[in-house]
Each structure stands twice: as structure tokens, then as C-alpha cells.
Amino acid sequence: MNELTFYECDICKNLVYLVNDGKGKLVCCNQPMTKLEAGSEDASHEKHVPALTRDGNVLDVVVGSVEHPMIPQHYIMWIATVQGDHVQFAHLTPNDEPKASFNISPGDVRVYAHCNLHGLWTAEA
Ligand SMILES: [Fe+2]
């Protein structure tokens, strides 16, 4: 299954994904964590939806079709891919470009990107 489930703490901004999907409630800072819903359409000039270029086993990701800012107050924190049981993360800093390249296998790939201000975004190639 090419989907990941993310939860965030509204207080401290801890962010996790479910490696195993148990039935328990995730709690942080003494309150339930919030399940993140990934956006796939962005009204603000498409600067959050990952733009994907696939060439053989290489997937180049840029966030987004209009490059997202990368300043300490507002930046893309990470980009992730998932293909079945294979999950990859590229962690970014404000000094990086909002880009990452991944080695992938044949078949569908799901991509996620996370903005520190505007949350979770996704696209599929
Ligand atoms: Fe943003």
C-alpha cells in the first residue's frame, strides 16, 4: 500500500508516521495527536504540491511547480516517498533547495512533502 499515515502534536509539533497501524490512540503533551490530511491541490500558485519527474529508477521531486520558499520561518522540512514497504525520507533545512532525488522501483510511487507552516502535501507518479 503506497500510503503513509502521519500524526502531529498541536502543542510541540512532534510529527510521526505509523510504522505499524495499531488501534491505540497516539498522545503527546497529554492530548491526542492530530491525524494529518495531505493536500493535493494548492490554490497559492501550486507551491506545495510536489512536482515529480521520473526517469527510469530516478525520481526527482521539487516542491512545488513554483518553488517553495526556504527561509527559517517558512520552509519544506522533508520530502518522503513510499512504494509498498519501502519508505524513504529526505530531510531538508532552510539552506537547502526544496528538492530531493530518490532511487525508486518500477510501479506507482507516493510522494509526501511537509511545510512547517502549511502542513502535509502529496502527489503520485
Ligand atoms: Fe508553505
Description of the structure:
The protein has 125 residues and is an all-beta fold. The chain is built from no helices and twelve strands. It has strands spanning 6-8, 15-17, 27-28, 31-32, 34-35, 50-55, 58-63, 76-83, 86-91, 99-103, 110-115, 119-124. A hairpin with a 2-residue loop joins strand 6 and strand 7 (58-63). Fe (ii) ion binds at residues 48, 68, 74, 115, 117-118.
Helix and strand sequence: EEEEEEEEEEEE
Number of strands: 12
- The N- and C-terminal alpha carbons lie at a distance of 14 Å
Tally the helices. Answer: 0
CATH topology of the domain at 38-124: Immunoglobulin-like
From the spread of the alpha carbons, the general shape counts as: globular
Major sheet: size, sense and barrel closure? 4 strands, antiparallel
SS content category: mainly beta
| Rg measurement, Å | 15 Å
Strand content: 35-45%
- Binned, the helix content reads under 10%
Q: Could you name the CATH homologous superfamily of the domain at 38-124?
A: SOR catalytic domain
Q: How are the strands of the largest sheet arranged? A: 9-8-11-12
- Mean model confidence by pLDDT: 94
Name given to the CATH architecture of the domain at 38-124? Sandwich
Assembly type of the chains comes to single chain
